[in-house]
């Protein structure tokens, strides 16, 4: 079955491998997409995602190789009756997934995730050399 999102992601990944570390391949799916900042340091990455109205148990962080995915489900604060009478709706709700292919492999055992003031903070170290676990992990959010 043709999946245009996956095709676009493959194209972006191909572009990333051609253009080098200055290009960050990302993909997003769902009914809304959180704004994110990605900061690269010499030995690690720091990712900040705006997730207002969400709790730790509404979010997930998964890492495999150099791919990091953040997902979740933000509940609507409107009642069923209010949904019928919406004139303008700018606050997204529902499911989302935001994935990125980072330029360097990630140390899966070094990842830390925390949620404070509606901002999800993920910190993860880069793998030195070509070794590292490729099995993939889900991260507990503190």
Question: If you had to describe this structure to a student in words, what would you say it looks like?
Answer:
Residues 27-142 form the SHSP domain. By secondary structure, the chain is mainly beta. The chain has a single domain (23-139), classed as Sandwich (Immunoglobulin-like), CATH 2.60.40.790. Helices cover 15% and strands 39% of the residues. It has two helices and nine strands, in the order H-E-E-E-E-E-H-E-E-E-E. Strands 1-6-5-4-9 form a five-stranded antiparallel β-sheet. A four-stranded antiparallel β-sheet has the order 2-3-8-7, with no helix packed on it.
What letter string, H or E per element, gives the SSE order? HEEEEEHEEEE
The dominant shape is globular
Number of domains: 1
Unreliably modeled segments: none
Total strand segments: 9
Quote the distance from N terminus to C terminus: 38 Å
* Helix coverage percent: 10-25%
CATH level-3 fold name: Immunoglobulin-like
User: Which CATH first-tier class would you pick?
Assistant: Mainly Beta
Mean pLDDT: 83
Q: Pairing-aware structural class of the strands and helices?
A: mainly beta
Strand order of the largest sheet: 1-6-5-4-9
Beta strand %? 35-45%
Query: Main sheet, how many strands, which sense, barrel?
Result: 5 strands, antiparallel
Identify the CATH architecture.
Answer: Sandwich
Rg, Cα atoms, Å: 17 Å
Please work out how many helical segments DSSP would assign: 2
Family: Belongs to the small heat shock protein (HSP20) family.
InterPro entries: A-crystallin/Hsp20_dom, HSP20-like_chaperone, Small_HSP
Protein name: Small heat shock protein 20
Keywords: Stress response
């Amino acid at each position: 079955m043709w999946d245009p999102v996956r095709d676009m992601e493959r194209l972006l990944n191909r572009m990333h491998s051609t253009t080098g570390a200055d290009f960050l391949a990302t993909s997003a799916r769902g009914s809304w997409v959180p704004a994110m900042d990605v900061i690269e340091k010499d030995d690690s990455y720091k990712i900040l995602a705006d997730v207002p109205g969400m709790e730790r148990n509404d979010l997930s962080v998964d890492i495999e190789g150099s791919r990091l995915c953040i997902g979740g489900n933000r509940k609507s604060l409107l009642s069923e009756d209010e949904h019928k009478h919406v004139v303008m709706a700018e606050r997204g709700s529902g499911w989302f997934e935001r994935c990125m292919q980072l330029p360097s492999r990630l140390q899966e055992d070094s990842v830390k995730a925390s949620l404070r003031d509606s901002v999800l903070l993920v910190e993860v170290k880069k793998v030195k050399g070509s070794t590292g676990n490729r099995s993939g992990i889900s991260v507990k959010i503190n």
